[in-house]
């Protein structure tokens, strides 16, 4: 079992060079690492990726943040140390014959969003914002203060410069808020499509969109529940509805869903996926399942993308 709060303290801050993920960046970065495990550090990395030096660093950071690539471990061969390798998730999603290599399905964006809430945390400010910013609406400075204030409880984040959290807050708002008008360079971020942060009627004031998520598939939501279970209770075969809604870095927090919306998604999911039940026991609702949560996670995602590719997916 992993303490997600403890893992947050090991994460990174402001490594994105202020750039939000752009269309094509993740596939481009993933493919570069498939071809050369030290592609981001190569002398000709700018030419290979076709972007500026700071953008190379940003692509690297986002590929790590979304768990598409990972560092080689100490037991790997010496010549590979300092390089990166594709993760199992990265290979399944972005390989040329993968689930959705060009991220044409909005569910893939939701899935990538979820990956910001599981270890390792390359972008710690994202879960800090979603867990600890309880304001009904907020501007950039208020969000930055909420992130910085929550970071103080984590020893290894508490000494980070305040400017780092300001950069993260700015990047986070531009990443999710809707429209090119919120992008400093006029380029819209694909993650604006999931509509989880929205600008209010007041200029430069934002809010989390809490409640029904029209584009969030029940498959992605329940898969994320089992991903969460993998880290927090891998040996148990039930998951409390309250826990998956309200606990630190839970799917409920990451997706900003209400109890009603989460219940609707789970009710739909258990009708389509074998070996899972959503039941009420002694007044408490919970997911009950037979298999290892990690195995369920992969199986559910495979089922979703297979049904989509076969055209048999039910809306």
What is this structure, in a nutshell?
With 315 residues, the protein is mainly alpha-helical. It is 45% helix and 9% strand.
Structure description:
A three-stranded antiparallel beta sheet has the order 5-7-6. The two termini are 35 Å apart. The chain has helices at 4-8, 25-35, 45-49, 53-65, 88-94, 106-115, 125-132, 140-151, 162-176, 218-232, 241-246, 251-255, 259-270, 293-310; strands spanning 69-71, 84-86, 197-199, 206-208, 238-240, 276-281, 284-289. A hairpin with a 2-residue loop joins strand 6 (276-281) and strand 7 (284-289). With 315 residues, the chain is mainly α. Helix 2 packs across helix 4, helix 7 (125-132) packs across helix 8 (140-151) and helix 10 (218-232) crosses helix 13.
Which stretches of 5+ consecutive residues score pLDDT under 50?
none
The average pLDDT value, as a whole number, equals 92
Please state the overall shape, judged from the principal axes of the Cα atoms.
globular
Looking at the chains present, what oligomeric state does this protein adopt? single chain
Strand order of the largest sheet: 5-7-6
SS-derived structural category: mainly alpha
Query: Helices and strands, in N-to-C order?
Result: HHHHEEHHHHHEEHEHHHEEH
Helix content, binned percent:
40-55%
- Rg, Å, rounded: 19 Å
The biggest beta sheet reads: 3 strands, antiparallel
Instruction: Give the helix tally.
Output: 14
Beta-strand residue percentage: 5-15%
Query: Strand tally, please?
Result: 7
Q: How far apart are the first and last residues' alpha carbons, in Å?
A: 35 Å
